[in-house]
Design goal:
Strands 2-1-3-4 form a 4-stranded mixed beta sheet, covered by helices on one side. With 163 residues, the chain is of the alpha+beta class. α3 (27-36) packs antiparallel against α4 and α4 (43-53) crosses α5. The radius of gyration is 18 Å and the shape is elongated. Helices cover 45% and strands 13% of the residues. The relative contact order is 0.12. The longest helix is centred in the C-terminal third of the chain and has 13 residues, at 150-162. It has helices spanning 3-6, 8-16, 27-36, 43-53, 57-66, 86-90, 93-104, 150-162; strands spanning 78-83, 117-122, 134-138, 141-145. β3 and β4 form a beta hairpin. The chain has 2 domains: 3-66, NADH-quinone oxidoreductase subunit E (Arc Repressor Mutant, subunit A), CATH 1.10.10.1590; 78-162, Glutaredoxin. The two termini are 29 Å apart.
Length: 163
Amino acid sequence: MSLEKKYPKEIKQILAKYPPEFKRSAVMPLLYLAQREEGYITKEAMRDIARMLDITDTEVASIVGFYTLYHDQKAGKYRMQVCTDLPCALRGADEFLNNLCENLGIKVGETTEDGVVTLESVMCLAACDRAPMFQTQGPDGIKYHEYMTVDRTMELIEALRKE
């Protein structure tokens, strides 16, 4: 089902915020809307957005690929995105991530067997001074987790599994 059929009211509200000559500026809110239900943006949704905004599919896909908040592949209920940029790496992010992989029995980019957590490595979440840190993206939105240890992270994952 197309986005326009699925979310007509929301799309109308989003597009109303932009003058017609700048409607392409609605791409990010429309991507967020498309991702809301499934946790990722389908190729069909990207085509719908491109058509609505009179831009190319490639332009939409490049935005999805650039931002860590948009996803074009299905994942676990929660995406755990660990910042491994240089400042965070200097504060132990790489070792933290490796230990998480070991504790979860998965590699970066994989999902736990129970489908709850997909572990990802991302660049700069703007909290370098609070590393190791990560953000979780899930049904309840995005949450930052700072000054983390592997033990505290495993406790968080156990809590997420119970939700």
